[in-house]
Write a structure and sequence with these properties.
The protein is an alpha/beta fold. Helix content is about 35%, strand content about 20%. The protein has a domain of about 220 residues: Rossmann fold (3-Layer(aba) Sandwich), CATH 3.40.50.10300. The longest helix has 21 residues. The structure holds ligand PAZ. Ligand PAZ binds next to helix 3 and strand 11.
Length: about 350
């Protein structure tokens, strides 16, 4: 990074809005080809076995400020919505490509996050005499086993069926390249492919050409960062990458008055199927589905849980999660979408 006294600000003063320009000028992440191959095999297998496939994006993206990254910008998302939704999609019979931020929450293991529910707290130590030769197994404390059993069962079922493919990203650039690649891999699924874009993606980035190689030095006064706008990729996604797919984007706002106008605007501009809107502090118990009925006409439907319920603690047995209703609603819409192809 740089001080505003001696060096030009980071970022290009010219705004690079177009997706083509972005992909032409930024470098694809290493390992992209391997991820493409994994996804392709996964899609071919599940498509031939008659499963619908959903791409779930989850977690936040980073914006590196140096090429040898010491500092980066990030956002709040832990990946709860994506990881939770992936579980409900798996339960509904979908094969799930879970494209998530490295180290963010994952389906099943999310119930035992190291901060809210550390897994070591669930285990009992073997008696000292039994543990000497390591013969006694470590066991789950009885008070935790009824909550753990269904999670473990579903985790093993998904592993056995091979219905969950996890692929990671870190930066916003990784995210955009992966989204393009995976959408194209899923294109042959046609209407049987769903795209559930729940990741919190940065709107701004520093192009690699403008990112300093080494750690930004302090001592030269304040720091100015100029960032370019990240291209809006929903348009090429709808028009080119996944033209028949059922595409669901998410819209997060902190000013609730903006939620519906911005969701409508996105549908009008990009032409995809649904926007799920949520306000930051109510996102765990209130979302709105916005769809376009005809030119200039939209329909909104809300899902609300009881806000008194404590949705803040992960994995509390028996607790209703809003993602269950979101996924059920979208599964129905997706079925309609598939049927509309047949009629
Ligand atoms: O990851 P999380 O569960 O903490 O948050 C989920 C969310 C708010 C990131 C998601 O519901 C969402 O709205 N994603 C899109 C964000 C955006 O407007 O770019």
């Amino acid at each position: 990074m740089t001080s505003n006294q001696s060096r030009p600000p980071l970022g290009s003063p010219k705004l690079t809005f177009s997706a083509d320009a972005f992909f032409d000028t930024q470098e694809a992440p290493t390992g992209l080809e391997k991820k493409r191959r994994q996804a392709q095999q996964f899609v071919e297998r599940h498509s031939s076995e008659g499963r619908k496939v959903v791409l779930v994006t989850s977690g936040g993206t980073t914006v590196p400020l140096e090429q040898n990254v010491v500092r980066f910008l990030d956002n709040f998302s832990a990946g709860t919505r994506g990881a939770t939704s992936a579980e409900y999609f798996l339960a509904a019979g979908y094969a799930v490509i879970f494209m998530h931020r490295q180290h963010s929450l994952s389906p099943y293991t999310r119930h035992y996050s190291h901060t809210t529910n550390p897994f070591l707290d669930l285990l009992s130590e073997p008696a000292e005499e039994d543990s000497k030769d390591g013969s006694s197994p470590i066991t789950v404390l009885p008070q935790h086993s009824s909550a753990l059993k269904p999670v473990l069962h579903n985790y093993h079922s998904a592993r056995k069926a091979g219905t969950l493919l996890r692929l990671t990203f870190v930066t916003v650039t990784d995210y955009l390249f992966m989204l393009r690649e995976l959408s194209q891999v899923m294109q042959p699924l046609g209407k049987r492919g769903m795209y559930y874009l729940a990741a919190a993606v940065s709107d701004f980035y520093v192009p690699s050409q403008k990112t300093p190689e080494h750690k930004i030095q302090s001592g030269k006064g304040s720091l100015m960062i100029e960032m370019d706008q990240v291209p809006k990729v929903l348009k090429p996604m709808v028009q080119k990458w996944a033209p028949e797919g059922f595409i669901v984007s998410f819209k997060l706002e902190t000013d609730e008055d903006l939620l519906i106008p911005k969701a409508r605007n996105a549908l009008e501009r990009y032409g995809h199927q649904v926007v799920v809107g949520n306000e930051l502090n109510r996102r765990k118990y209130e979302v709105v589905f916005v769809e376009r009925i005809s030119d200039g006409n939209f329909k909104e439907s809300w899902i609300r849980l009881d806000p008194q319920q404590d949705n803040s603690v992960l994995g509390k047995a028996g607790e209703k999660e809003i993602e269950e209703d979101i996924v059920r609603n979208l599964e129905e819409r997706h079925e309609q979408w598939i049927k509309s192809a047949q009629s």
